[in-house]
Write a structure and sequence with these properties.
Keywords: Hydrolase, Protease. The structure is a single chain. The protein has two domains: 113 residues, no CATH class; 330 residues, Peptidase S8/S53 domain (Rossmann fold). With 539 residues, it is of the alpha/beta class. About 1% of the residues have low confidence. The protein contains 13 helices and 24 strands. Helix 1 packs across helix 9, helix 6 crosses helix 7 and helix 8 runs parallel beside helix 9. The protein is globular, with a radius of gyration of 23 Å. 51% of the residues are buried.
Length: 539
Amino acid sequence: MLVLERRDSAPSGFVHVGAAPPTQVLTLRFSLAQNNFAGLEEALYAVSTPGSAVYGQHLSKEETDAFVAPTAETSSAVQSWLSSHGLSANAATPAGDWLKLSLTVAQANELLDAEFSTFKHQETGEQAVRTLSYSVPVELKSHINFIHPTVIFPLKSFGKGPTLRPTPKTKRAINAAPASCAQEFTPVCLQELYGIPATPAIQSSNVLAVTGFVDEIANLADLQAFLTRFRTDLPSSTNFSLQTLDGGSNSQSNRNAAGVEADLDTQYTVGVASGVPVTFISVGEDNLDDVGGFFDLLEFLLAEPSLPNVLSTSYTFNEQDLTLPVVTQTCNAYAQLGAQGSSIFFCSGDGGVSGWPSLQCTTFIPTFPSTCPYVTSVGSTTGLNPETAASFSSGGFSNFFGIPSYQAAAVGTFLSGLGSTHKGLFNTSGRAFPDVSAAGVNVGIIWDGDHATVDGTSCSTPITASIVALLNDELITAGKSPLGFLNPFIYQNQALFTDIISGTNPGCGTNGFTAGVGWDPVTGVGSPVYANLRTAVGL
């Protein structure tokens, strides 16, 4: 037997209670070696890089699955091992690179040469059955990436923090822009600042999906009030579709249950991406994946017959709280979505260089999934003419992923200018983020029936996603493909964005990084200009 993963102790906050009951049932996921992920990555970059002979020719689900499916040898070896213990696993993904297996603690201990124990979180009282080490037969080392959840303890993603501010109930002129934008950003301000069109989209297949976690409710009455106040040109009855998993729901029986994040995300997709079909995907708390339902959501999406053209997520983790196998498997799944033509957006986080929420730290803390090279990370700006970097806008460099080729030149230029500043505080060879940025301060919403403003990269992300969704509508109308994975396009077209050249993102006892000419780890290449992007995509 070969130790596949181990940790010295439980993470801070968890205490050992005792051996787990032998008859308790566990559900484990087995991540199997994919037969040709390098080929998938190559195909992803080819269909996503302007100038490529196959640019825009996104892969089908079947073509994508063929790259990531395990070989027959891998599947047979793993199933034979399980069978020798009287066990059988089922495929959890269409490609079969994830297997799911239910077994007792006693069976898991024997199968994995492990000691599953019960651990309790001292603050929340939450209990989890985990092991500090597990093994697989040495001959399976090349076939099994990792088994989950084993050594990783329950995590929840970070969403909107306590940045909501009630606003005076005085009613101002709806179209008073841009002067009023100094106090509050609204859809009209965004149309003025970025040139976002108000003309309704027309393509019913062009879905923009936003994800909701931790049982957040997107309130329909709040959306109606938002449209009535801020988008009088759209029908106030404009709605979104709903998909649920892991016990997620979107009950409208109690308006007081509305979530700030869910309201924000739906209002700034429905209310900015005029006419684009929006789907709210509610991921509930009934999950056992230990990463807040992120694995379950990916399994759900990979099994869907058609994917949303744009997926916006305003939740994130601190990269250091996850393991390399978990971030790699998650990131690779985003590559699968991108290869099929989905643009995947994540907020960069709201803790500057000190993670999210801001932590005491001796080195800079990157956030994930922003550090995944196959997603587009969004930071925040503040102000109007000129925009400056929002001080909370997280950015930096991954400790898990290297610098991808599409951003190597831009990041190299930044690092050369940085010199020895912050030497030793971050990984100079890591994937850099964010990629782009947008308004994220004093953003007006309706929450729990009241007018309020919020701050955060959680605001900037659905705004940016909405811009891309509108471009996709025009592309599809013109008989072209949606944009899909955006980063190669972004870094080839930096001059088309408004460069943000002032502001910092402090943390860890420092001023953090400084926004300047060109790409920077505060605001990326800058904020979007719709007309420029429209021309660049051939419209």
